[in-house]
Every structure is written in structure tokens, then in C-alpha cells.
Amino acid sequence: MRRISIVSVKDGDILARDLFSSSGVVLMSEGTRLKKEYIVRLLELGVKQVCIVDDETEDASLSCSLVEEEIKEQCGEMVRNTIEKYTYAAHDELKEIVKVADEIIEELLSDPKVMYSVSCVREKSNALYQHSMNVAALSTLIALRAKLPRNKVKEVTVGALLHDIGYTTVTSDISNLDFENCEEKIRKEVMYHVVYGYTDVEKKDWVSGTVRDIILCHHERMDGSGYPLHIKGKQIRQEVRIVALCDQFDSMIYGNLMPRYKVRDAMDYLMSQAGVKFDFSLVQLFMESVAAYPIGITVITNEGDTAVVVGQNYKFPTRPVIRLLKNAKGEAYGENEERDLTKCLTLAIADSVEY
């Protein structure tokens, strides 16, 4: 199976996945052999892309099923890894958070319309797909910590999953792009991705108003300095503010349209903008939830040791559990040389080596 532009479809190609209208009605079923008149009608309806069977002998149903299962598995794994990596919640609470987040993601991905949208993101760019999963995981975590009702948490999650769906329409190459230092023409197209995304879901009755707002407004800022509407303060829904915060954080630490930041530096930036560009109470909640030194990051201690973070200490974000790898002279430590920095008070993290 492969996704192609509708203008590239040939007479006789076989549809590999159900094709939905903007209202969620099935226009054509998988397995349909596309004729010229069908293609013309789809163009009139505004259909831009379809999935077709690569080989006429391929079992389209089986192919789609395998793709969907692969995405579900990847989503679940990414969400678990992201939450476990970045939170320093107590163990029982962490298990509960991951469980609920898994349930929400699984529930959402059981809907073919959501799955189709997530597939579009994945096929556009693996980096974009990974970013969407990370933002969904972090946004779900913050929404749960903010004690939003379950239905609102679901809206945050689906909005975060699809917040950058407009990039599937952007034609410019955005890989390794520095938004602040690119050509004005490209910058405008990148900014327009929120409008592309909103337009794509505007008339789909399965997409709630909150999700549409997340897609359109996740680059708005509390002081009105964002885009595209320049709204501010309470004009921005709480659910949108959550995704905006998590989107900014993930973009900074993975270098999405900007130079990469270390986690600690990204958190310092968010804290400096609390009450300015980002919701003050949500930034506080974020700081209480997300680890300054995530599990797996290599760090340098004040004694010159190289170590890796292997555990977190609840309410002590800058003093995790580390495993010593080598000393200042480059000599290797034994396999189980671990230090809990809440107990080794003379030892501290001086820097991190994240990239």
C-alpha cells in the first residue's frame, strides 16, 4: 500500500483504504477499482490523497490492518517511553498515568478517522510523527495532572496527535529548517500550517471544537505575540494552552524548526515565559511533572564524573539517581556504581551531554 496524490491515480488503481468525506461518511470502500469518472468526482469533492494497492495481488485489507497495528504499537510505545522518561512521579502514580494515557491513545486509534489522520502525519515525515507522539504524551500527562475531566483529556490528546497535521500540505522542505532565520516566503508557509490543518478538519463532525482550536491556535501566546489570530489570555482555551506549552518544549529539545536546547535550558526558558507567553499555572505544573534530567541522559558531575541518569526522585528534579560510567581521568567504574543524589549531598550535576 502507498499513499499518492489524487492527480497521480491511474485508471484501474485499487483503493487500499476506506475513503471518508469531511463529515465522516464512507465515499468509497477499500478494494474499489478506481475509474476515470471516480477520480474526477473525487477531485471535485476536494480529495487530495488516497491509499492504493501497490500490487493487484496484494490483500488490501491485510495490508491496512498491519499498518494500523504497527502505528498503534508505535504510539503506545512512544507514549509510554516519553512519560516514563520525563516524569519523576512516584512509582504507583507513574504506573497509573501511563495506564490511563495508554487507554486514551488506544481508544482514539480504534477510530479509523483518527487513524487515517495519524497515518498522514507519519507518511509525511518520521520526525513530524515522532514530534506529534511526544507532544501527545506530554500533553496527556499535563492534562491528567491538571485534573481535567476524562473527555477533556481525550480532546487534548487527539488535538496534540493532530496539531501539526497541516504540515502534510506544506510543500517546502522543513527538515533542519531554522524558522527564525529562513526566507520570508518559507516562514509564511510554515506559519500557515495551522490554517491548512484547521481547514482540513473544519467540516469533519468527528472533530470537536476544542480539537479544531488546538490545531489552529497552538502557536498563540498569552501575551498576544503568537499566530495566526493574535489572541491572548483567557481567549485561548486551557486545552490549547497545554498543547502549546508541550509543543514548544518538545520543539526546543529536539530542534524542530529551531536549534536544539538542553532539557534544563528549555525548562529555564519556559519558566522565564511563565505568565508572559505561557499560562503561569500550567508552567508550574509542567515543572512539577517533567524531569530536568530525563532518564537516559548523560551528565557530568561537579567532580568530573561521567554518568547516566537511571531514576528520578519525586519533588527533587535536579537530584536524580545516576549510574557512574567513568571518573574525571576517564577510568571506568564498575557495573553497579549508582548514586542517589538526594543522599549524596556533596555530589551534584554540573552539566548534561544530551546531543
Task: Give the radius of gyration.
Answer: 22 Å
Order of H and E elements: EEEHEHHHHHHHHHHHEEEEE
Distance between the termini: 36 Å
Summed up, the helix count is 12
CATH homologous superfamily grouping of the largest domain? Hypothetical protein af1432
- Order of strands across the main sheet: 8-7-6-5-9
- Low-confidence segments, ≥5 residues, pLDDT <50? none
Quick one: how many beta strands?
9
CATH topology of the largest domain: Hypothetical protein af1432
- Sum up the overall morphology in one term: globular
Count of discrete domains:
3
Structural class: alpha+beta
Helix content class: 40-55%
- Quick one: biggest sheet? 5 strands, antiparallel
Q: Strand-residue fraction? A: 5-15%
CATH C-level class of the largest domain = Mainly Alpha
CATH architecture of the largest domain: Orthogonal Bundle
Mean pLDDT comes to 87
Short description:
The protein is of the alpha+beta class.
Based on the model shown, name its key terms.
single chain; 355 residues; alpha+beta; Molybdopterin biosynthesis moea protein, domain 2; Hypothetical protein af1432; two-stranded antiparallel sheet; 12 helices; globular
